[in-house]
Design a protein that fits this description.
dioxygenase, oxidoreductase, globular, metal-binding, 5-stranded antiparallel β-sheet, Dioxygenase, Neuraminidase
Length: 322
């Protein structure tokens, strides 16, 4: 199973994919609410690929074949060196969630690599998919130690990661794409209740120039094209921002944004909580953590009631109350 399986809270299903160096190079599967693997199909690819994320709508799963992959000749000698091929288009596989290999529809788009998608949904004959388009998926090597190389390679400004939208027409086969924002951001999250549905807000990370650290957060308004930002401050770096819907909330941004930060000036770590309707005002709560934590990437939020069920449930069905 690869990095980012998806949970559909409406059905309790886990949608996932994997990839390997053996033909057919990718598979897609579904685990139902009772922890049983109920669907598993081949997704044939031209060769080994490096897919990191996927997306889903009410009726479809969306997988990908991006032109950033291990050099085939070097791979024969067990050398894993990724190369970007700007002359090869990006490909997206749209498959019914319980569909077979023969049901896959392939759509071609501009060459890129997408580390993370934010959401997807159905709009009439179209599937709308949002994610972070990388203008330079393979930045030049700047030397240094292997860790220097890695942290510079993944710097958001060097990848030129920007929020992007693809439209796949299931009737005509047409593909349209558009850049949603010019600002460089990544690691976007949404209100989990709006997964696979038309939505308005993305909460993303801003990056320290030239280095893979998050120095602030931004709220993207997809309807107005505006942004609201908050900077953590000099020498302070945070995690991906989780969105916690308010219990009894009525709006998409009626909830809280939560991130964990580390202040490199004082070696102290904090949990910051923001009002999701106005994160630019700063945190409404700043909780000191008992120990310093390293700056991380992904995070998630789950209500305490769910965590207690997970701790005692004998199956996924029990855990989510089905």
């Amino acid at each position: 199973m690869s990095a980012h399986p998806k949970v559909d809270n409406a059905t309790g299903e886990l949608l996932f994919f994997n990839y390997s160096k053996q033909d057919p190079y990718m598979h897609y599967g579904v685990v139902d609410e009772r922890n049983e693997l109920t669907h598993y199909v081949d997704i044939p690819l031209p060769g080994p690929r490096l897919s990191h994320d996927m997306a889903f709508t009410e009726n479809y799963a969306i997988l990908n074949d991006f032109p950033l992959f291990w050099d085939p000749q070097l791979l024969e000698h067990d050398v894993h060196l990724p190369r970007f091929h700007p002359d090869i288009p990006s490909r997206f596989a749209v498959i019914p969630r319980r569909g077979g290999t023969e049901d896959i529809r392939w759509f071609e788009a501009d060459p890129t690599f997408v580390l993370h998608f934010t959401n997807a949904y159905e709009d009439g004959d179209e599937i709308v998919l949002d994610g972070f388009f990388e203008g330079d998926p393979s930045p030049l090597d700047t030397g240094g130690t292997k860790w220097d190389k890695l942290f510079r390679f993944l710097a958001l400004d060097r990848l030129q990661a920007r929020l992007h939208r693809w439209h796949f027409n299931l009737v005509t086969g047409e593909v349209r794409e558009e850049r949603l924002f010019e600002s460089v951001t990544e690691f976007g999250t949404i209100n989990p209740g709006y997964a696979a549905a038309d939505y308005r807000y993305v909460y993303a990370a801003t990056g320290k120039p030239g280095w893979f650290l998050f120095d602030g957060l931004v709220k993207h308004d997809l309807r107005t094209g505006t942004e609201e930002r908050f900077s953590f401050g000099d020498g302070v770096y945070g995690s991906e921002t989780a969105m916690a819907p308010r219990v009894g909330g009525t709006g998409e941004d009626d909830g809280y944004l939560i991130t964990l930060t580390t202040d490199m000036n004082t070696d102290a770590s904090y949990c910051l909580v923001f009002d999701a309707t106005r994160p630019g005002d700063g945190p409404v709560c700043k909780l000191p953590l008992p120990e310093r934590i390293s700056s991380g990437t992904h995070s998630t939020w789950a209500p305490g009631s769910e965590l207690r069920r997970w701790d005692t449930a004998e199956s996924a069905a029990d855990a989510i109350g089905l």
